[in-house]
Each structure stands twice: as structure tokens, then as C-alpha cells.
Specification:
alpha+beta, four-stranded antiparallel beta sheet, 5 helices, 2 domains, elongated, 4 strands
Length: about 200
């Protein structure tokens, strides 16, 4: 096997260096600058690799910890934390007035629940009461939910009230019963009312 050649030039003191021909002196200086740059870069890359290796080990440890933590909480989390969105629907009546309403769409442990909240007007009146304002419904200027921007904004407001109250209900049920089964029973018996969650 061919021996790897060491590409380092012999160091000369100033006096010895000055005895060299002009072009060789110039070439030697240029080479030494390049040699130094290469050494610095190699040192930097080595440091980066060491950092990378250390962080990679840390990441693997974190992922193991993540898996253990996930496995320890997922069952209870699945019982108590649903995916919630708000559904809006509207059907024109014969005389042209919209019959708009709101419902909750909730997914829990693979099941879908859709509790009815109420008409658009009643939902907005409830929000007026909660906020002590007439921002959501004014009897003299009926603001029906007729455009997408208005509906999207109202969905956020409704969810901010409804979601924590549903979770609170599930936590309460889970303390005394099998929370999910009890929720399913109440829903089947039509005892889950969307408006009951539109509270402080």
C-alpha cells in the first residue's frame, strides 16, 4: 500500500528562509497559508462532527423518553381530550329568511358526536350575555352569519368557551365512572346539549 504523503513543508527560521530564491519564498508562503486554512477547517469539521454525534445521541435519548411518556399518558389523554370543531348550517325558509344554526362536531376515541347548540340568533344572544355586550346580536341590526369571515371568527369564539367546558365535563365523568362510556350513554339519551357548554 502506498504510504500517505505528509504535505507539510519544513519550517525555516527567518534567516534560513531569506536564503531561498524569491519565487520559492513566495510559493512557500502561499502554500503555508493554504495549509493553515486546511488545518483550521479540518479542526472545525472535527468539532462539528463531535457536536453532531453528541446531539444525535441526545436526540435518540429524547425520542426514547418521548415514547415512554406518550405511552404513559395516551390512554387517559384519549379519554379526556377530544377533537372539537363547530359546524354551521343554514336552510332558507319559504319567505326567504335563513334558518341558521350551530352544532358541535366532536371526535373522541374514534367516535363522532354532534351535539346541537342552537339557532344562530340564540347562540349570538348567549354570547352577548357572556360578554355583557351586543357585539354578536343587535335586535335593531340583525347580523346574520352570512359571510365566511364572520362565521370563521365566530367559530373561534364559540370554541374558546365550549372546548374547556366539554373537557371539564369529561374529567368529572371520569372521576366517578368510565368517562367515555358515560358520555356515550348521556349522548344516546340526548342529555348532551351543546348550549350547556356555552358558558363561562
Amino acid at each position: 500500500m502506498k504510504e500517505k504523503r505528509v504535505k507539510e513543508l519544513i519550517y525555516l527560521n527567518e534567516n534560513s528562509f531569506n536564503q531561498l530564491p524569491h519565487q520559492l519564498k513566495k510559493d512557500k508562503l502561499d502554500y503555508q497559508k493554504l495549509y493553515s486554512k486546511i488545518k483550521k477547517r479540518e479542526k472545525h469539521l472535527k468539532s462539528l462532527k463531535e457536536t453532531y454525534d453528541r446531539k444525535r445521541i441526545e436526540l435518540n435519548d429524547w425520542k426514547k423518553e418521548q415514547t415512554e411518556m406518550f405511552n404513559s399518558i395516551i390512554e387517559l389523554h384519549s379519554d379526556l381530550v377530544p377533537t372539537i370543531s363547530l359546524s354551521f348550517s343554514g336552510k332558507p325558509k319559504d319567505w326567504g329568511i335563513r334558518n341558521n344554526s350551530w352544532s358541535i362536531t366532536m371526535r373522541l376515541k374514534g367516535r363522532i358526536f354532534s351535539p346541537y347548540i342552537g339557532t344562530d340568533k340564540n347562540v349570538r344572544l348567549r354570547l352577548n350575555k357572556l360578554t355583557d355586550s351586543d357585539d354578536y346580536w343587535n335586535e335593531y341590526d340583525n347580523q346574520l352569519t352570512s359571510n365566511k369571515t364572520d362565521k370563521k371568527e365566530l367559530e373561534k369564539v364559540l370554541k374558546s368557551y365550549i372546548e374547556p367546558n366539554i373537557i371539564k365535563k369529561l374529567v368529572r365523568l371520569n372521576k366517578s365512572f368510565n368517562g367515555f362510556e358515560e358520555w356515550c350513554k348521556l349522548y344516546k339519551e340526548k342529555k348532551i346539549k351543546g348550549m350547556d357548554f356555552l358558558i363561562e
